[in-house]
Amino acid sequence: MAKAGPVYVCAECGAVHAKWSGRCDACGAWNSIHEEAPAAPGPGGVRLPRSHRAAILTDLSSTEAPPPRTLSGIGELDRVLGGGLVPGSAILVGGDPGIGKSTLLLQAAAAFAGSGLKCVYVSGEEASAQVRMRAGRLGLGQANVQLAAETDLTGILTMLDAERPDLVIIDSIQTMWSDAVGSAPGSVSQVRSAAHELAGFAKRRGSAVVLVGHVTKEGQIAGPRVVEHMVDTVLYFEGERGHQFRILRSVKNRFGPADEIGVFEMTGGGLAEVQNPSALFLSGREERAPGSSVFAGIEGTRPVLVEIQALVAPSPHSQARRAVVGWDGARLAMILAVMEARVGLPFTGLDVYLNVAGGLRISEPAADLAVAAALLSAREDAALPADMVVFGEISLSGALRPVSQTENRLKEAQKLGFSQAALPERSKAAEGTGVALRSVPDLAAFAGSMFGAG
Ligand code: TYD
Ligand code: MG
User: What is the model's pTM?
Assistant: First the structure.
């Protein structure tokens, strides 16, 4: 066999390239490609002695009961997991350094221990004393969680095989290291091999394994994306550092709906659940300010109201700026184009800033109309009615399309004291939600009825 040369791997997405370049073709990340030793032939990684046996076949119709799920009692976490923790599942929790992953998982471990699970928390970053100190600060000093400060994967797997815990937390996957893999800790091959071994352990022993992954800024350390495909559930812990809100979002879940969110608040005593996120995202809203609209959105299975803010100002630059926080920049460009072509309101020469308040990130097309409403309100310098929510998808023709779960959106609006809603014609809404409906066929009609513009 020809000796394999070095390979070049992107630390963001794990794509393998034949030669080095400054930018990864696969994911577009800059400066993330670096050299790694070629993978060992055959399945690499740590080998535990195990006897060979034939794979076992079962029928689709076999009546094995599904494994029972365990609830932690932290409602926001249980919902994001799809209704509790599934035994034998591998879960990735990604997020920026310092966002609160270790805090969340220590609280989760303590909560699951309280529900009767045997929990092991392996820290590769902090000494046991540090973890213990944090637990003390969180008021969890008495929780029945076993700690290990270890980065050697073989040692950890041997301990886990002996202990057989129900839940293992590995904080973080980037610090795990096996000498069977010939590259530096944190490299793509080390991280993948560790994730593969730990996910394999979860399946073999029926333990749930949580892998913590830092989202990395510089290219030498592999990011959590390189192990997303190896796990059952991928959760990201998001939030602005300056804000105290944190959002746990499921982007993949084999055991429940994806796109579910759990909302937490970082307090002096750790993360606290936020039971009513709409109230939180709307708090501090200036009711009669131009450039603000309230979007009635759906996150996962739950309606959430959130304020969308826009600022439109004459641009001092030859090329006007478009800046977006919490929404998709390409979608903003589309809405500006529709506004110009179908409503006759150009934004040329105007800087446009768009912000989703509270640090939430929205990906629903249903937010189109709320974004357009905020932009129009900012451009016309006229406030929208303070008691109105807005939702609907905008098509390139300028027409509005109905979106899913109209009724849930309206119910949430009513619950929070809103009394009218602007929404697409033909939306399936039952009467009796107590919210007055202002159905509009297209964007031009919306602009006309709200602002007399267009
Ligand atoms: P941490 O869980 O260590 O983040 P990660 O594991 O994602 O890197 O959280 C670190 C931040 O959380 C730190 O800046 C302090 C803050 N924090 C609180 O505000 N309250 C608390 O009770 C705790 C434990 C941390
Ligand atoms: Mg940490």
Answer: 0.82
